[in-house]
Design brief:
By secondary structure, the chain is mainly β. It has 6 helices and 18 strands. The chain folds into 2 domains: about 160 residues, Immunoglobulin-like, CATH 2.60.40; about 140 residues, Immunoglobulin-like, CATH 2.60.40.10.
């Protein structure tokens, strides 16, 4: 028998190779990929909100979204994370890099914090209120996430940035990802040169032009509003202008206002007249003096400020029913909500 003996003094060397931990990564869940990504919109009650049609910038934030206190849901994928690390969300309006500490914490900071202490898990889901994303638009050092910020942000692009900090690190994140959020909470200026011609249970409303601001390029239609309260507020039936307790200077129509007073409108960006026949499905009544005002709409479904002062028209059964004439656009009489822009 052939044997092999090892001496007791023979040493066996064992090589130990240390493996460096892989760097953490953070990104959007690929199920929501797109340009821009189709991120879920969450209502104030926590339920998913149906978005606007594609022609009305559904991924953007408009005035009504802000008033409704909606949130944007960010479904993320976090890989190779460590216990005791930190995941945070920041925002900026200037397009700055929030991973730089000076942009987050300094006298000249241009980023504001949205969320700290995001749970560390493979698929974090983070809901961030749109008001919070907009909150630093006027002052990054003093963000205002209340309803007061609604209606103060004109067309602007925000950047929501997620920062992952390794354990013990507070200055520089080791992984980042960012998402653009387009915000426009200011509608176009109102048309000028408003006239209201009475008809049989109907009113023909005409205007001359829209000037100033971004209304000319973003214009998608004009809403017409009728208020019967003027019948008691303005006894002089011959006056072309009148008063209304509901149509005041700087009135900004929202969904509730539309439900109460919207009586017609026109879609498109070339219309100059519209027919009013009903308010929220209820026909106009003859012998009523209506205060009439208009407001323009834009590609974010914002409704701009109401024209002021209102003009008046008294419906009369002896007059012919108003009929839409030329002038461009598509006349929409007596809608219960703002007219949608044509694709």
């Amino acid at each position: 028998m052939l044997g092999l003996a090892l001496g007791a003094s023979c040493a066996v060397a064992i090589s130990v190779v240390s493996r460096r931990a892989e760097a953490a990564t953070i990104d959007l869940n690929p199920a929501y990929a797109g340009n821009p990504p189709a991120l879920p919109r969450i209502g104030a009650d926590g339920t998913i909100v149906k978005k606007r049609p594609l022609n009305l910038t559904p991924e953007g934030v408009n005035l009504q979204d802000c008033l409704d206190n909606q949130s944007i849901r960010f479904p993320l994928v976090l890989a190779q994370f460590q216990a005791n690390a930190s995941l945070q969300a920041w925002a900026t309006l200037s397009g700055a890099d929030c991973s730089l500490q000076a942009n987050r914490i300094s006298a000249a900071a241009v980023c504001w914090n949205l969320v700290t202490g995001i749970p560390l898990q493979q698929f974090p889901v983070v809901d961030i209120p749109v008001r919070k994303i907009m909150s630093g638009a006027l002052s990054p050092a003093s963000p205002d996430a209340t309803q007061a910020i609604c209606g103060k942000v004109d067309l602007a692009s925000f950047s929501v940035q997620f920062l992952y900090f390794d354990p013990g690190q507070v200055a520089t994140p080791s992984a980042t990802t960012a998402f653009p959020v387009l915000v426009d909470t200011i509608g176009p200026p109102p048309p000028s040169g408003i006239t209201a011609l009475p008809g049989n249970a109907s009113i023909t409303v005409e205007w001359q032009s829209i000037s100033g601001g971004g209304g000319l390029t973003a214009l998608t239609g004009v809403n017409v509003y009728c208020d019967p309260a003027s019948s008691s507020a303005a006894p002089d039936a011959s006056a072309s202008t009148c008063s209304s307790p509901n149509f005041t200077a700087n009135t900004l129509p929202n969904n509730d206002f539309n439900a109460r007073f919207l009586c017609g409108g026109v879609t498109g960006n070339t219309g100059s007249s519209a027919i009013a026949k009903s308010i929220n499905g209820v026909p106009l009544q003859n012998g009523i003096r209506y205060a009439v005002a208009v407001a323009a709409t834009d590609a974010f479904a914002n409704v701009g400020p109401l024209s002021f002062p209102p003009v008046c028209a008294t419906t009369d059964a002896s007059l012919p029913v108003a009929v839409a004439e030329g002038g461009g656009g598509c006349s929409v009489a007596g809608l219960g909500g703002p007219p949608e822009a044509s694709a």
